[in-house]
Amino acid sequence: MSNRRQLSDAPFLEAAAGRTPSRRPVWFMRQAGRSLPEYREIRKDVGMLDSCFNPELLAEITMQPVRRHDVDAAILFSDIVVPVKAAGVDLDIVAGRGPVVAEPLRTASDIERLPELDPDSLKPVADGIARILDELTDQQVLIGFAGAPFTLASYLVEGGPSRNHERTKALMHSEPELWDTLMRRITPIVTGFLRAQIDAGIDALQLFDSWAGFLTERDYRRHVLPHSKAIFDEVADAGIPRIHFGVGTGELLGAMAEAGPEVVGVDWRVPLDDAAARISGALAAADPAGDRAEHARVLQGNLDPAMFFAGNAAIEAEVRRICGEADRAIDRGTARGHIFNLGHGVPPNTDADAITRTVKMVHEL
Ligand code: 1CP
């Protein structure tokens, strides 16, 4: 059963479908969070994970940036470790640090013990989504999300945030079959989280493989891509736009596009017209008999989050450059559309007014 809304001309959905939107859609990764005084206030006595399992609170926090900035999409307030927690893994999100796992998965028996996800444990998330959909207008979409298996595996294997992902890479290379088992056990947790959100009525979804950029393309293709592709295949029947994003993935853009998303998120390091050429080139090489138009994807990105600290004139110059590069790719037929975003998340100490002004610049361009 799906509660999906029928939205006819929301700018985000128009752009994601390769049609011309009434205005260029814009939203920001981590738009909910510490950059907003109203978020700091509402979270001051509530733990991060507690707020992710409280329908009223998660809906309120999801809506805060939409009300304040006039962005074209809400992103569900949750975290990539929420379904892992719901499955029963002992973990917490520690303020100023991130997800910390009590007993990291290192051996075959650790991995064997990774529990399965009971969809009922995500009912608070579904209830929160219902509240959000009640408040959004028919021009505003709700994006659901999940962490991709590699990025989730990194937290589970390392036990917390990691600078270089050594233990994760060591497992991948020293015990490739065990690595494969781990990825196969994480995959249903990811698809279960996405399915719960799809059934609750999200309008689009994003799969975050935030740390995939630490891998060589060769390792990504061999040890990660098949699992991310299985997830995109599994949720294709929902018929909603699917976005794939990672940080520092310039060398992987083509391979990540081969996983199957309609929209590819690009970090700030690669100009969007270059990104489009890499993506369409890789898709054409994988499907030489196909039609050229079939190889173009929608681009999402890619303002450097640090630009929020650079002042209006500098931000505006960057917004113009980025939109120009996206439009050039669309004109050339290497991209089908553009959704404006950052190259990664909003920094917690960003001035909220700088975010609002940036949204206005994109809309008025
Ligand atoms: O107390 C707090 O406010 C904690 C900070 C915080 C927030 C606001 C964390 C801990 N998670 C979140 C919310 C969150 N996480 C969202 C909300 C929606 C929005 O974008 O507005 C999303 C999409 C995520 C997803 C997430 N969590 C990712 C993928 C996105 C990305 O940033 O690359 C990752 C890698 C995480 C792990 C995580 N959770 C929190 C932190 C600080 C981290 C990163 C830790 C690290 O550096 O490894």
TrEMBL record:
* One Pfam family in the UniProt entry: URO-D
UniProt GO molecular function: uroporphyrinogen decarboxylase activity
The catalytic activity of this protein is classed by the Enzyme Commission as 4.1.1.37
**What is catalysed by this protein?**
uroporphyrinogen III + 4 H(+) = coproporphyrinogen III + 4 CO2
Site positions (Transition state stabilizer) are D79
Q: What are the record keywords, sorted?
A: Cytoplasm, Decarboxylase, Lyase, Porphyrin biosynthesis
Q: Where in the cell is it found?
A: Cytoplasm
Q: Which residues bind substrate?
A: R30, Q31, A32, G33, R34, D79, Y155, S210, H344
Please tell me whether the keyword Cytoplasm is annotated for this protein. Answer: yes
**Gene3D superfamilies, per this entry?**
3.20.20.210
* Predominant localisation class: cytoplasm
Quaternary structure? Homodimer.
> Which family would the database say this protein is a member of?
Belongs to the uroporphyrinogen decarboxylase family.
Functional summary from the UniProt entry: Catalyzes the decarboxylation of four acetate groups of uroporphyrinogen-III to yield coproporphyrinogen-III.
| Protein name stated in the entry | Uroporphyrinogen decarboxylase
Species assigned in the record: Corynebacterium xerosis
Q: What is the lineage of its organism?
A: Bacteria, Bacillati, Actinomycetota, Actinomycetes, Mycobacteriales
